[in-house]
Amino acid sequence: MRTDPYGGIRWHWTTPRAQDILRRRALPEILQLHREIHELSQQELAYHLGYSTSYVSRIETGSRTITDIGALRHIAERLGLPPHCLGITDEADGDHQLVIQLADSVLRLAEIARQAGQATTAVAELWPLVARLEARTADGHADLDTLRLLARAQVGLGVALGHVLPEERLATAARWTGKGLNVARRLGDPGLHAHALRHHGNELRKAGFHLRALDRLGQARDSARTSTERAEAVVLLARAAGTAGNTAVFDAAIEEASRLLVEAAPTALFSGFTLHEVRLRGLMGTDRVAEAVHRLDRAPMAGPAATSQWRIIAAITAGEVLLRKGDPVGATQQLGSAIDGATLHRLPHQLQRAVRAGRRLPEVREQADEALARLRAEIAA
């Protein structure tokens, strides 16, 4: 029997053909599909199920109908299917349906918490959900609803961890978004796949994997179905290109993002405010300090969509530009505000940025170092 490289998930049950068969609870076709996917003869399937070859043959032809609940549960277990696919309901399956119903609410609440600057709360909400869904799929209950929720939860957990982990541990956040991407790419859901690509690419950038980040974000841009999806991918692509010092990709992405400001509705990720920050940082990263200084005072209003995280990011970037401009007073004000915000919202990665930005400002450096030490102690505990 073929081995599954994706952690034991029975992916063949997620195809449109399989989903049609499962909806109809057509046991003869279920057995035939299982044999087809795993390249089994009737004799081999019979051995796997503990039945005779002639008995399996009669089931597949429809001349033998199974109604015994125990037998149906046995077949479901051997094939790695949720019992309800064969018309059986039990306590475990009922509990699973409740998880499905509540999971979407948990994901929404975690996203609200993260955008409100409470990423630790988001992590606390998502850990048990991810563990529950992963355990369910490991047991073979890999229906489409479960897998979609699993992909969203893994990506959401990775993004939240990308807020609360220090730089040296950001690869962990990228691994979680990568796990979500691996699930999403198999499900034939373009929106979910594009969502996972965007966030995995951004976490790869933060973890220092620049080429891989550019690749994922380029895929996210190219696979976007709406102007909003494309805008969010493009602004992250510009951010990654600026960090990598790739001037050509950065300039092209900034130009496209500027055009999309007219087409796409503002989101927490894409707006005039976030694009301004990305442009400033990218100009600094591509050695165009004078242009960054020139554009510094053109920042649009943050607006209601701007999250606490973005406001802190923007303040650090402004502080960096002001320092290069030769304005230590203005830089101290911006960086001090950012440090206060990063401390309040428990964002060690941003404190580490502030430490680097304020290396020539002893008071700022000391303030950031102390705040970072306190957060590190909390994380270690």
Task: Tell me what you see in this structure.
Among the domains are: 11-88, lambda repressor-like DNA-binding domains (434 Repressor (Amino-terminal Domain)); 90-223, Tetratricopeptide repeat domain (Serine Threonine Protein Phosphatase 5, Tetratricopeptide repeat, Alpha Horseshoe), CATH 1.25.40. Helix content is 73%, strand content 0%. It is built from 19 helices and no strands. It has helices at 16-23, 27-38, 42-49, 53-61, 69-79, 91-115, 119-138, 144-164, 170-184, 190-206, 210-223, 227-244, 247-263, 272-285, 289-295, 308-325, 328-344, 348-357, 362-380. It is elongated, with a radius of gyration of 25 Å. 44% of the residues are buried.
Q: Report the top-level CATH class of the domain at 90-223.
A: Mainly Alpha
Strand content bin:
under 5%
SSE succession: HHHHHHHHHHHHHHHHHHH
Rg is 25 Å
CATH superfamily of the domain at 90-223: Tetratricopeptide repeat domain
Largest sheet: none
Helix count from the secondary structure assignment: 19
Overall CATH architecture of the domain at 90-223:
Alpha Horseshoe
Counting helices, strands and paired strands, the structural category is mainly alpha
Query: Which residues form runs of ≥5 with pLDDT under 50?
Result: 1-8
Q: Termini distance? A: 45 Å
Show the helix and strand layout.
Elements: H1 16-23, H2 27-38, H3 42-49, H4 53-61, H5 69-79, H6 91-115, H7 119-138, H8 144-164, H9 170-184, H10 190-206, H11 210-223, H12 227-244, H13 247-263, H14 272-285, H15 289-295, H16 308-325, H17 328-344, H18 348-357, H19 362-380
